[in-house]
Specification:
Layout lengths: L48 E6 L5 H17 L4 E6 L7 H5 L6 E6 L5 H10 L5 E3 L8 H10 L7 E6 L5 H18 L3 E5 L7 H10 L5 E5 L6 H12 L4 E2 L7 H15 L10
Parallel strand pairs: 1-2, 1-3, 3-4, 5-6, 5-7, 7-8
């Protein structure tokens, strides 16, 4: 259903400049995003709405990135009503957004780990609404590893640091370690975790440890969804300690949009073939 009067319209292809910059058509006639492989199957069922809920930040780049991600998701799934909300520091809140959205909206936490914000804060903020909350986005998966790999600015590295925000939740830190191990295995180099706050090591400490092991060119991969203070803190620390470059956050990438749609499809019970042609 269309958004109620006064609420923001669902973003779509028109938000991307009328399709400018999109790639060639796939077999179903849909324009592909830059870097997107042709798909064998894309779901057409759009009788539900999606709310992407991000953490929120005082840095305006963070909210802009979340809104760009919503546009990317809507471009991949034409006709899908995709809106955004923020847990704090930005507006609208999840409650404000859901008040003007249809019942049975699918809420996707635009968060990487299942710590306080994913496990406590978000459920509390949507309590009382007829909606479904999907799992967070940061577990090891092919779309996530592809997104992390594609963000690396070059191949001139012999080790990696996976920069993350940090948390005191042990299970959430274990997830970050799993992603670092999987990314290192995928790329054939050692990969250590570094945190901006709430845990150790810092970016500088992780770089120093790898250099002590004999690695001369340490790059920094970004386990962040959007830019902000914590991203700047941990990557700045790593660069000051001798890292050769730092990858940008995952941002509004097609791989992240694919991951979000997989969460949505699983939530609404769609059985889809997500295989991709070469």
């Amino acid at each position: 259903m269309p958004p109620p009067s006064g609420s923001p319209a669902a973003p779509g292809l028109s938000d991307l400049g009328g399709g400018q910059g999109l790639g060639p058509q796939d077999r179903e006639g849909r324009r592909r995003l830059p870097g997107e492989p042709p798909a064998r199957c894309f779901a057409r069922a759009t009788n539900y709405s999606v709310l992407l809920v991000a953490h929120g930040s005082r840095d305006p780049r963070a909210a802009a990135t979340t809104r760009a991600l919503a546009r990317t998701v809507a471009a991949v799934r034409p006709g899908l009503d995709v809106r955004v909300a923020f847990l704090e520091l930005s507006t609208p809140s999840p409650r404000e957004a859901l008040c003007v959205m249809p019942r049975e909206t699918v809420v996707v936490p635009v968060l990487l780990t299942h710590a306080y914000h994913g496990g406590v804060d978000l459920p509390a903020q949507v309590d009382g609404f007829d909606c479904t909350i999907t799992s967070t986005l940061g577990a090891v998966s092919e779309p996530l590893l592809e997104a992390l790999s594609r963000r690396l600015p070059g191949s001139d590295y012999d080790a990696l640091v996976l920069a993350a925000a940090g948390t005191r939740v042990v299970s959430a830190r274990a997830r970050v370690e799993e992603v670092a191990a999987a990314l290192g295995a995928r790329l054939g180099v050692p990969c250590r975790v570094a945190y901006a706050a709430g845990a150790t090591p810092s970016g500088a400490e992780a770089v120093a440890a790898l250099r002590d092991e004999g690695h001369a060119r340490v790059g920094v991969a970004s386990y962040f969804l959007a830019p902000g203070r914590l991203y700047d803190l941990v990557t700045g620390s790593a660069l000051a300690a001798g890292a050769v470059w730092a990858a940008p956050p995952l941002g509004a990438s097609w791989q992240l949009a694919r991951l979000i749609l997989e969460r949505v499809d699983r939530s609404v019970g769609l059985e889809l073939d997500h295989a991709f042609a070469a």
